[in-house]
Write a structure and sequence with these properties.
The chain is α/β, with parallel strands linked by helices. The protein is 27% helix and 25% strand. The chain contains 14 helices and 25 strands. An 8-stranded parallel sheet has the order 1-10-8-6-2-3-4-5. Strands 14-13-12-11-15-20-24-25 form an 8-stranded mixed sheet, sandwiched between helices. Helix 6 packs across helix 7 and helix 7 packs parallel to helix 8. The longest helix is centred in the last third of the chain and has 14 residues. The chain is globular, with a radius of gyration of 22 Å.
């Protein structure tokens, strides 16, 4: 049945159990709003999904004191629930959480879809990432038809009659903006662009450097994109015929981006099992993966999750893409970051990471800052340290040299 309100959906929720809530562009914000008005509907429920910091801001575990949540990222909006023990954090990669979700039985789930087509099937639209992993394993399926969700040319669909209850509510899709591209991000992007040959397949992450990197590739030809997410700079690449084909799981950005990716024949949407599968990535020649980080140490270990001793994010697809590029014939795994922050007062190339690394030293990468690039693959520990010191902020290099000498003597 189709209802115009969320009350029937709340009434259908189990009294206790596990509920799948999608993230990214498919987060059911009207559903969250309805629960906020009737918080008792969340009592006893465990909400699980892949919610992205900076995009998905709802604290699902905080909707009721007796609600719980499970996530692979942390964000400021969920900090209170994490501190209180209501939100469980698991340090998993995208492929790992894909497998976990596919093996989990959900008592209920809310699935965002586009309005059904003439064939009675609903497109997952610009959010094809994790829903295919859990759809068949969900006992009670709530379909949220969102007229703002476009039906895409090439992407997963589900039959309308597979839902136990259908709600139609128009709601804008979550947007995304990296902000103004600063000169440092632009300089780093220019360094990265120099590592990307014509005909390469490129992946970029969220953030200013990822956005700036896409913008720096508009003069190329024959590129392919294979990425977990695409953002607004893709429009310019399509307009300039820089890319021949795009495979992605999610589009995050403006309504103009959503309209473009839904109708362009070069774009296909695929679930995480395809976009992040390491075997799939390794089989792509010249696969260049570009992701940002918070800091890197002189061993080549990468931190993408910690600030001042606090977990602020998660590994997500970072490790999947880095390992896929490492195994690709002619591939390049790139970690990009500014050399320093706070007006050069704090170096982001550090002697040794104080917190668990996102990428260990056994997975060497190419590190890019505004001062250059350091290809750590195949280098000894001494050569790695020297290569990283050479691309650190000049005002920190002497200190890093002294710190490395002390570390090396103690080994």
């Amino acid at each position: 049945m189709i209802t115009k309100t969320m009350d029937a959906a709340l009434d259908a929720l189990p009294k206790r159990g596990r509920v799948f809530i999608p993230g990214c562009a498919a987060e059911p914000l009207p559903f969250a709003k309805a629960i906020a008005a009737r918080p008792e509907a969340a009592a006893g429920l465990t909400f699980e999904g892949v919610w992205i910091p900076g995009v998905n801001r709802t604290d699902w575990a905080g909707l009721h004191p007796d609600a719980r949540g499970e996530a692979i990222f942390l964000a400021p909006e969920w900090r209170d629930s994490f501190t209180a023990g209501r939100l469980s954090f698991s340090p998993l990669t995208y492929t790992q959480v894909w497998l976990r979700l596919a093996r989990t039985r959900f008592d209920a789930g809310v699935f965002a879809v586009a309005p059904p087509g003439a064939d009675g099937r609903c497109s997952l639209g610009v959010a094809a990432d994790f829903t295919p992993a859990v759809f068949e394993n969900t006992r009670f399926r709530i379909g949220w038809i969102n007229p703002a969700m476009p039906a895409v040319r090439d992407g997963p669909t589900v039959p309308l009659d597979a839902f136990d209850l259908v709600v139609e509510v128009d709601s804008p899709l979550p947007g995304y903006g990296a902000g103004t591209i600063d000169p440092v991000s632009a300089a780093i992007a220019a360094r990265i662009a120099g590592l990307i040959p014509e005909g390469a397949t490129v992946q970029t992450g969220l953030g200013r450097i990822g956005v700036a990197t896409l913008s720096a590739l508009a003069d190329r030809r024959g590129l392919r994109l294979h990425s977990g997410m695409v953002t607004d700079p893709l429009i310019d690449l399509l307009d300039h015929d820089a890319v021949d084909a795009v495979t992605t799981g999610v589009a995050l950005g403006s309504p103009a981006l959503h309209a473009r990716v839904a109708d362009d024949p070069r774009i296909r949407f695929r679930p995480v099992g395809d976009t992040h599968g390491i075997a799939t990535l390794a089989a792509i020649p010249r696969f260049v993966a570009v992701n940002s980080a918070i800091s890197v140490d002189l061993f080549g270990q990468v931190n993408a999750e910690w600030v001042d001793g606090r977990q602020v994010s998660g590994a997500g697809g970072l490790i999947d893409f880095m390992r896929g590029a490492w195994a690709s014939e002619g591939g390049v795994p790139i970690i990009a970051l500014p050399a320093a922050t706070r007006g050069d007062a704090v170096s982001r190339v550090v002697p040794r990471l104080p917190d668990p690394p996102s990428i260990g030293r056994a997975d060497p990468v190419v590190v890019a800052t505004e001062h250059g690039t350091a290809d750590l693959r195949g280098l000894s520990i001494e050569a790695r340290a020297q290569a990283l010191i050479a691309i650190a902020a000049p005002c920190h290099r002497d200190r890093l040299e002294a710190d490395w000498s002390a570390i090396r003597r103690a080994m």
